[in-house]
Amino acid sequence: MTGFSALQHEADGLGAGLPPLMVAADRLAASVSLGVHGRRRAGMGESFWQFRRYQNEDAARIDWRQSAKSQHLFVREREWEAAQTVWFWRDGGAGMDFSSGPVVKRERAELLLLALAALLVRGGERVGYLGGGERPAASRLAMIRIAHALLDGKMQARVLPPNTPIARGAGLVWLSDFLEPEAIETMRGLARAGITGHLVRIVDPAEEDFPYHGRARFESAKGKDTALFGRAESVADAYRARFRAHGEEISAAATRLGWTCTTHRTDHAPLSALVALHAAISRA
To answer: Which of 121, 162, 167, 168 could form a disulfide with 194 if both were Cys (CB 3.0 to 4.6 A apart)?
Structure first.
């Protein structure tokens, strides 16, 4: 069996048992018409970009066929095609299983993750999942491997990215609610290792709005602590201020590290978050 046939066989085998999430992610990625992810500037590469007018230093690069159509000399410029490596991590903590409506935070995070991976692969970028045990690649097989890593029981409950060696200059897309106390310190460690991070803060509308009134009992995500309020609205302002401050703290920490931070509410369409995230990675 040739190398290509072996990879195709593996992709077919892995893809056979994937959930509808992959289909939804493909559809979401297909709805984003952002073109090729490659940086649109001149440089070393094989893809034709544009013709431009001849300059004195261009004698060896003249395109005579194009020039024959005009009274001017033209040079064929090629696009700079330095593919980057983008790793992914999805928080698997208990808090990501929360939902006040039809969308679970974990499910929305996984949808955005796979859709972004699909967009990057279409643009020729290499993608992989931290701790997944596979090298990143720019292929459909890499996406399927990521999907299987999300379903891996050993990794599903992990909150913080594993301490896995990553090459300097690589990117990391980290989707979480960032409520883990050690999140910021983990960000700093990754930044010291030369990683460029893109955070996606997943928020349920009830977490941000606190729409509760009257007598209410609240449980921690892990079910260990509870709090009973006779009038939940009495703590609403203090809660909202604290939740807002936490989001600002995460965003500020990312900015200090030269990272990006996008906040996405699960009651909003995922398309806008995907576009913003893709644009952030393109600028990086």
So the answer is: 168
In what order do the strands lie in the sheet containing 85-90?
126-129, 85-90, 171-176, 196-203, 260-265
- Mean pLDDT over 223-238 rounds to 89
Would the pLDDT of 83 be above 70? no
Q: Where do runs of H (alpha helix) occur along the chain?
A: 3-15, 20-30, 64-67, 105-122, 140-151, 153-156, 183-192, 205-209, 236-256, 270-283
Average pLDDT over the chain, rounded to whole?
A: 82
> With 60 as the cut, is the pLDDT of residue 9 above it?
no
- Quick one: what percent of the chain has pLDDT higher than 90? 51
Q: Which residues of 270-279 are buried (b: 16+ CB within 10 A; e: fewer)?
A: beebbeebbe
Alpha-carbon torsion, ordered 184, 186, 192, 195, to 10 deg: -100
Rounded alpha-carbon distances, angstroms, from residue 195 to 169, 203, 223, 247: 6, 25, 34, 22
